[in-house]
Here is the input.
Amino acid sequence: MASEAYEKNLTVKEVAVEKGLLNEAEAAELLNPENLTDAVKMYHLLNSRTL
Here is the structure.
């Protein structure tokens, strides 16, 4: 996704939403830099998602 985002001059969030992998709210929460750098927060976010 990162390389596609780079090639299209988009953010990873935009590509994830465009592909239907995440909705806007999920993307905003999961790709928030504060959450990405906090292992405990990310663990809880990922485990609270329904797959």
